[in-house]
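User: Working on a comparison across species. This one is Ribulose bisphosphate carboxylase small subunit from Nocardia cerradoensis. Can you predict its structure so I can line it up against the others?
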Amino acid sequence: MHLRQGTFSHLPDLSDTEIGAQIRYALLNNWPVSIEYTDDPHPRNVYWEMWGLPLFDLDEPDGVLAEVNACRSTFPHHYIRVNAYDASYGRQTTALSFLVQRPADEPGFLVVRTETEDRRQHYGLRSYATDVPAGARYRD
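Assistant: Here's the predicted structure for Ribulose bisphosphate carboxylase small subunit from Nocardia cerradoensis:
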């Protein structure tokens, strides 16, 4: 199972050249870029850990790619994404967000059904990754 989050989620994984091209596009639009990582990819988990500070005032994607590679080497078994923010509306808005790394083995999600009053059914998702404590997930 492949996690489908962010822009380009239904395309094959991006190469470093393609990632650099997307970062260049963001920088040409004056969008600051940040890098985030997690080992809990639940769709409602929107607050991933931030890798360093957002990268402002860059002209070339090389600095961002160096930080992406540093994050990859520190967290080789985590999901890593790049976000670009557009402040032209007077507030921070995510203009672009895409995965640049995923674990080799993605365990997927369990659909949890709960019966409530009047026999109504409620459904939710639980990540199989959370069966293992944080920090120990996705180890080889």
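For your comparison, note: Residues 34 and 136 are 25 Å apart (CA to CA).

User: Helpful, thanks.
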